[in-house]
């Protein structure tokens, strides 16, 4: 039998009590990794993610923290490494998208979205990278950006710049960290059915429109991101850095 892709690796994922982060954490464990997850407030979701991972024989730990607080980054990396020994792969996933119109965007909604999605990513990636550099054995950093890094959204004027921002962060970090053998890439999901858009896609008309532009014929599921993230995490992607992988069922290229 082939060696699992992430055997011997420790993977850290933010915002992993639900959705894409949870699928990435479980996917990494299914491919042989031990996993630490950050989560914001959903104690039950975090505990069930840990239990699911442990049930198939991997180590797992959940550490609570708000990624918008810069102190959470060093706290998460330190406590995760204390528990699991090291970090080989860091997945920056935590994010929010409180849909709102542009002309009356509340300042606090704009600022919270920037702090969670972009500042949080910056501090987390920086803390993970410092640890990887100190370990001296390279690593892989993956940011969950979005198709929204490339295209706009009427009710996402505060959100799309954060997704372009994390995509750009991976490009610059790839240059800054290449000499340390640390690869930095992003995945760009299309529309994936999760908590983040449950209310927005409760609108049957919008949901049908969004699905209609996907050549593969359906909206995404969180598990659709697990394979691409595991690939970028693994040594199969050893010469891939600064890249962005659309995982959107073809929605982006579907102009007509
Ligand atoms: N669902 C979609 O269509 C798409 C989602 N994305 C991105 O995927 C990532 C994951 O979102 P989904 O799984 O879709 O939704 P989700 O709502 O299930 O997951 C977001 C996770 O981030 C956590 N989180 C939010 N604020 C946090 C904070 N301050 N500190 C720590 N954790 C926090 C939430 O608790 C949740 O577990 C986000 O960055 C989102 O922008 C990107 C493209 C498409
Ligand atoms: C939350 C949205 O449904 C989702 O977020 C993204 O980044 C995608 O582009 C979708 O708009």
TrEMBL record:
SUPFAM superfamilies to which the protein is assigned, alphabetical? NAD(P)-binding Rossmann-fold domains
Q: Which family does it belong to?
A: Belongs to the short-chain dehydrogenases/reductases (SDR) family.
In alphabetical order, the GO MF annotations are: oxidoreductase activity, acting on the CH-OH group of donors, NAD or NADP as acceptor; quinone binding
Q: Which UniProt keywords apply?
A: NADP, Oxidoreductase, Rhamnose metabolism
Query: InterPro entries, per this entry?
Result: NAD(P)-bd_dom_sf, SDR_fam
Q: In which pathway does it act?
A: Carbohydrate degradation; L-rhamnose degradation
Q: Which residues form the signal peptide?
A: none
Q: What is its EC number?
A: 1.1.1.378
One of the protein's GO biological processes: rhamnose catabolic process
Any Pfam family matching the protein:
adh_short_C2
Name the record gives this protein = L-rhamnose 1-dehydrogenase (NAD(P)(+))
| Reaction(s) the record says it catalyses | L-rhamnofuranose + NAD(+) = L-rhamnono-1,4-lactone + NADH + H(+); L-rhamnofuranose + NADP(+) = L-rhamnono-1,4-lactone + NADPH + H(+)
Please name the PANTHER family in this protein's record.
Answer: (3R)-3-HYDROXYACYL-COA DEHYDROGENASE, SHORT-CHAIN DEHYDROGENASES/REDUCTASES FAMILY MEMBER
Q: Kindly report, in one word, the top-level EC class recorded for this enzyme.
A: oxidoreductase
Zinc-finger among keywords? no
Q: Which domain of life is it from?
A: Bacteria
